[in-house]
Each structure stands twice: as C-alpha cells, then as structure tokens.
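for the writeup, i need someone to sanity check this before i put it in the appendix. the sequnce is what the collaborator sent (i think, or maybe the updated version? ugh). structure was predicted straight from it, no edits. if anything looks off just tell me and ill rerun, i have time this weekend
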Amino acid sequence: MMYDYLPVSMVDYPGKIATTVFVSGCNFVCPYCHNSQLIKSKKPVKSEAEFLEYLDKRKNLIDGVCITGGEPTLWDGLYDFIKDIKDLGFSAKLDTNGSRPDVIERILNDDLVDYIAMDVKAPKNKYGLFVKNNEDIEKIVKSINLIKNSRIDYEFRTTVNENILSLEDFSSIGDLISGSRRYVLQAYKYSDGVLDKDLCGEKQCDIEFLKNIKEMLKDKVDKVLIR
C-alpha cells in the first residue's frame, strides 16, 4: 500500500520535476537496502486521497510521479493508483525489482507508465543473496525482456558494492540486459539504515571500479551511466 510521499524530487524521475511515492512491502531482502523500514507493510502516513488532492493542486509545478518502494508491484491497488495519476494529467514512472512480470505486462499493455526503472540486482547465480523465494529469479528475466521490447523509455540499474559483486558478475549482468538502451550504475553509499552492515561495509564504491564496469559493458548496452 502507499506509505508516504516526497512532495518534490529533482532526481527520481530523469528530466522531470516529480513527486515520489513510497509503497510499503517488499519480497526482496537486499543487503544494501536503505529503505529497509518499508520491507514490511506499514500503516500509511498519508492516504491515497490526500496524495491525489496534493497532486491536483500542483499541476503547474510538477511534471510527473515516481512510484517506488518497497516493491510497488506487490500492491493490489497499484493499477488503479497509476490510472488516477494519469487521469490528472501527470507522467508516471515505476521503480521495480522485476519480480512480478504479469503486473508489468498489464501496465505496459494499457500504456499506464511513461518510464520504468528496473533494478537488476545481480547475475542469476547470485540472486539468492537478494530474494526470499528462488522462483522469483526466472521472473526477473521475463521482466527484462518485457521492458526491453516495450515502447516506453526505461533503464536497468544496479547498486554497485564491491563486497557483493565482482567485475565478472557485471559481465554476466551485461549478457542479461544486452541490447538495452540504458544501464545505470548506482554507487553504494553507506547509511545507518543499511540492512546488512557486515556484508556491505561502510566503504563507498570506488569510482575506478565503476569506470571499469562502464568500459567493459560499452558494447553490450547503448548507454552506461554512473550515478
């Protein structure tokens, strides 16, 4: 369910001034998760009605809405929520871990989102570090293909932590997303809310490691970005 929202964001929706909505509940246990308070479903801070009222009053100030989590595709009300956003005239961006391709397919088929950012956590053989249910791993591949073949703008992205993923791992990820438009490398940054501090460590990702990944994948993906 919708938990809360950030009134204005300049970074969550590329090229747009956005409001970011946080949906609680997640089926993954990412070691570096910085929104770990949202893994379990929580009582909403703001209601959907309050949010839509806020949005309606800011049509001249905000371009779009970024829906993130947690994992939004677990929420039964997601489809209708996005439809309400679109009916108000806003663009919609969905952040997802890709574990619910049936939800993604329905949203894409009905042209409800304008941008999807999908986290590709690891190569398939390392997804066990992130998922609660191994059956979700094959669903990841289906979601990647759905998004790659869609008509909308999109990006795949990975949080880069050298304690978890090696250069060889990123070569395998490159094979998974080969031919895609945009791949974003998100440098790991330590915070007190990190889910597994022992595994992730406190050291921020080395910029040279990020540059090496970018160079390695330049022939597999149209554009590799470092954030």
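Residues 1 and 76 are 8 Å apart (CA to CA). The two ends are 28 Å apart (CA to CA).
thx in advance!!
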